[in-house]
């Protein structure tokens, strides 16, 4: 096994269908011609590796795809194409990530810890530490939906760092806490680093990134703009934000629109071909490159879209369901309806002798 990395992400894309409503989604599902739904590519081919014991920062403007990438690495959402190889247990800390609003803080601690593979006695042993670190007082007994974002972050952070994950993914969780809690988290992250754990740190705070990260990946409107030493990437990103701030309002809008247009018109087949061509050019004697790339793109991906076989099956099940309902409503037996389908729309007449028993 190649031990040079703890997390590997290769040619990862993420496509969203931009349905306007649930009804449109349903229509498109049953549409035989394949309804024209606009697509948006939140990630357009990201490849990077995180080494064991490394802290990688993810930076980029709002909507650039940082959370999409960290959620894919955490296994919360699937990628559309590409390989995601994560070697170890991950624990994600994002504001409220994985917390159930209707459950109390205490119940959430138990649930998340159980989901992380801990046993009840192990959770009991950790409970005081988790509660102490979160330090949210009596809110512990209240449903999480009544928490402020700071409180959710405290609880989420406390659970995540106490279940002893191999890989910690922190998505903006430090941006909402107060200074004391922030320092506690930074100390805990430093402790994790010392223990040799791998960390992915998503943040808008370049100061935090500079303090905590060994390397930084700059995600720019769905692409990996740059990855490298923290000081270099942060410097280039600062130069970009300075340039952007110097644009007029109209220029900024134009730039953002252009970027989003690129993400809408991204062509996954062309990208696959480009990857194939690049690999073939790098090694002209390599064989079956196209097949290997196709396997890399789709081999480990469970399609979120229904194939034709599944659609036809779903359609058949729906028809059987409707027919069964109609048979029930009509009052005829199944055999009767099979022999005389017309009976389906003629409810069985139950004759009541209204005069029966009436004295004439
Ligand atoms: N479920 C979804 N359906 C459609 N588009 C989505 C969905 N989730 C995210 N997106 C889009 O994907 C893009 C990337 O979003 P993401 O949340 O990953 O960005 P981000 O870099 O984490 O942003 P921020 O810094 O604001 O948190 C955005 O344009 C967002 O609108």
TrEMBL record:
Listed PROSITE patterns: ABC_TRANSPORTER_1 (PS00211), ABC_TRANSPORTER_2 (PS50893)
ABC transporter domain: which residues?
Answer: 7-246
Single annotated GO MF: ABC-type transporter activity
SMART domains, A to Z: AAA (SM00382)
Could you confirm whether the keyword Transmembrane appears in this record? yes
Give a GO cellular-component term: membrane
Superkingdom, according to UniProt? Bacteria
Q: Which UniProt keywords apply?
A: ATP-binding, Cell membrane, Membrane, Nucleotide-binding, Translocase, Transmembrane, Transmembrane helix, Transport
Q: Does the record carry Membrane as a key word?
A: yes
Record field: transmembrane: 312-331
Family the entry assigns: Belongs to the ABC transporter superfamily.
Q: What is this protein called?
A: ABC-type polysaccharide polyol phosphate transport system, ATPase component
Naturally occurring in which organism (per UniProt): Levilactobacillus parabrevis ATCC 53295
Phylogenetic placement of the source organism: Bacteria, Bacillati, Bacillota, Bacilli, Lactobacillales
